[in-house]
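Table S2 (continued). Query chain:
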Amino acid sequence: MIIDTHSQLVTKEAIESLPEEMALGYQLMFKDMKLPGITATLKDMEDAGIDMSVIVAIDAETTFNYRVSNDIVAETVGQYPDKFIGFASVDPHKGVKATIELERAINELGLKGLKVLPHLIKANPNDPVMYPLYEIAQDAGIPVLFHTGTQFHAGTKIKYCMPIYLDDVAVDFPRMKIVMAHFGYPWFYEGMSVVLRNPNVFFNIAGWAPRRIPDEVIRHMNGPLAGKCLFGSDYPLISRVRIMNELDNLPLKDGIKDLLVSQNPKRLLGIT
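Corresponding output:
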């Protein structure tokens, strides 16, 4: 089973929820990026040989009025339960409402993880405002996927996305599985150190054409972090077909690709 641990939900609601300034910024940066619907998404998965993909909600309502609801993610998973795994998102600035919503997303909607975008919520991952959400995630046994590194949402600040902040979170919540998305570029040495020293931290390669992944990250994938690297696409930013083709040309040791695309994602998500 091949699992994409990080992709975006591209539906009419999801597209329309993107603030205009951010949409324009994406168009300037990624001129060739298409905004496919579910049919095209499923075809890209099929063509790439992907069995299941994580899709994520987004809640940055108090900061940027940007929201892809947990309900629409759950609805999509319900329509294609053998293809999608849903991750929730909650805006921590909503206080008690945020904790109630996360519990609802897990217990009523059946979502299997939490997505955190620090630059959109204008809070570092180790900000105390986040900790009630981590307590819920740890108790529920769901992984938390953090955006780290560079990003292209206009009007946001990259300073919130430094991977070093995850070290505090990993130490304070040792039973919570943490995923450092995009391997923390440009701070990937720092990011690899955080993953290396914390048993509960993984990293993914989402949003990167494999041929452009830094050599140092590949060295860690082939070495001490072989059991903690995860395939992710950030589709539709990059097609899964391209990623799978380029993975075959990376200097990966025997067995590493299987760990990356199958064994490690299954372990993260508790799939047997």
